[in-house]
Each structure stands twice: as structure tokens, then as C-alpha cells.
Amino acid sequence: MIISAATVLIDQELQKEVWLEIEEGVIRSINSGTTPEYDFRYEGILIPGFVDIHCHGGGGKYFGSLTDSQIEQVITTHRAGGTVAGLASLVTEPIPNLISQIKRLVPFVERDEIAGIHLEGPYLSHARCGAHDRNLLRTPTISEVQTLLDAGQGFIKMITIAPELDSALEVIEYLAKSGVIAAIGHSQSDAATAQAAIDRGASVVTHFNNAMPKVVDGSGTMSTAVMSDSRVSLELILDGEHVATNIVRDVFEAAPNRIVMITDAMSAAGSTDGTYKIANLEVTVKDGVARLASNGALAGSTLTMAKAFSHALNEIGISITEAVHAASTLPALILGRSDLGEIAVGKSGLLNHLAKNGEITPIKC
Which backbone phi and psi does 348 adopt, to 5 degrees? Predict the structure, then answer.
């Protein structure tokens, strides 16, 4: 298949008039100039497909759903929003329930419909549990975590842990040595504890500035430690609700090339306002903002990656190269997916088209 485009983002530069040869889903050649023989022509900008390392649901369903068709609905919803690979994130549940959910997702990873599994809980701080059931939170142990990893058959790619919990640092080190991404978040940690977690191998901060001390809380907090440490990447939810615009700009400036754009989407992503649930907690979605019915706390987002990307460009004002690095390149690197994240020969031909009107649509090949 031949794709001709007015502009293509290649090597972090916008190159004019490029045509791509894509065969069996892989970019076989990149060519300057125009060609009269093409299958598709795009007048906007071609960018890599998005990689979302933190997503719970969409289309009215969850990755923790009981049926394959409901899980497929989540995948379909986010593919329409430009995500070509992502982690299926699971919230805090009783361990037996969590094991069942993990096992249900394994075939989806085997078929490469999702890139892996992310456990956001149950090893979180009671003080910063957000939309997780505080009654189900637990202290991590290596033996219990290994039980979960065994259920995932090697497909659990990331686990979020509050580093101040008993034994958390030992578990973080164990995960890092086992090839699992140790993320820190949902935490009341001080700077020293966060630094210790990074020293032990933590490499991602789960939704930075949410469910943790905020940037404005000053020195000595987890925020100050992770902002200044180049070894750790910072997830950001860019919906205009979770993190204020001025803070987002400051974070992009303070931590260049370390920002990971995520959706943290709950089931209402790609759906409508109404009443939903996260596990057993009731959530109200109004004007596209999800909040716990019990206390009004934010309960994930209703983003797709396309919406987050558009917000980054149009509301935050970051450059397209910064946005692509955060939405595609860095998350692909974090997941070890050398086939994704940039437009280059040998890489995936699953791309997105940023039209002149700002609309983002996936390119099928």
C-alpha cells in the first residue's frame, strides 16, 4: 500500500511531501516527493499511532469486564481514538477477583490486541486512594505479587505501588529485577521515600500531580523528588480537569522528554454522561468529567488519546514534536516496543492523521 502525505513527522521534524510504502502493516520505505500512484492521500500531518500505558475502560465497558465482547468494546473505542497499543489497567479488587480478571486478559495480550496488563492497586495509600475502594487496599508482599505475576503469565507489564507502605521498597526492587515496570503513585510519600523507590528501580509515576502531593505543596514531597530525577517518567492526564494548564506547562518545561500522556480512562470514555461504576464505587459523569458520587473526587477521565493529544496542542500549547514524544515515542520505549513510537522504516504502519481542522483519525493499513 502506498500512502502519500502533505506532511509527515520523521526524526522529530515535519517533512513536506512524503510517500510511504507499507506492506503487511510495516513501513518498508519512506520517500521524499510526490507520487501519482498512491492508495491514499492525506493533506494534514501523519504522526505515529498512540501508545497508552494507563487505561481502564471505554465505550461503557471496562478491561475488568466479565465477557470478551465487553473487553473488545474497550479496545475498539480506544483504537478509534488513535491508540494502537496500550496496557489494560485494573483497579483494586479482592485478590481472587483480580486474578480472574488478569487471566481473562491474557488471551488479548497473546493476540496483541493489548500490549499488556497494568495493576493500579491494591497496594495504594489509604490517604490517596482516589477512586479505589479503601477497604480493599493491601500491604504488598513479594509472595502475593508473584502470585499475581504468575496469573499474568508474563504479561503484567506494570504495577503501581505507594512506596511508603511496609515492604513496598523491597517489592519495587523485586519487580524491577523481574522486568516489570514499577510505578509509584496513589501515595503520600515524602521526597526521601520516593527517592528510595527510584533508587530501587521505580521508573514511572502514576498520573503525576493526582492522588499524590501536588507540585504546589512545596519541597520535601514526592512531587519534588520525581520532578528532579531524570530516571523516572511522569504520567499526565491532559483533560483540563486533573492538572491545571499552568502546572502542565511547568512540568513539560521542568521534565523535558519525561512526560507520558495517558488517558486513565474509565468506562465513559467514548460514551455519554450518566451514572457508572468503578468496581463497586458509583461514579457520576457530567459534561465529560467523572467524579465519585460519594465525595465528588475525580474518578479517572473520559479521554481518548486523540482528545488528550488535541488538548495538549490546542489548550496547553506544546509543540507537535513534544506531544508525539509524550503520546507515542516515550510510552513505546517504556514498554520496550521498538516497533512503535515513530515513523521509520521497519516500524509499524499503524499511524494517525492530524487533519487541518484538528481532527485525529487512525490510518488503517
Answer: -60, 140
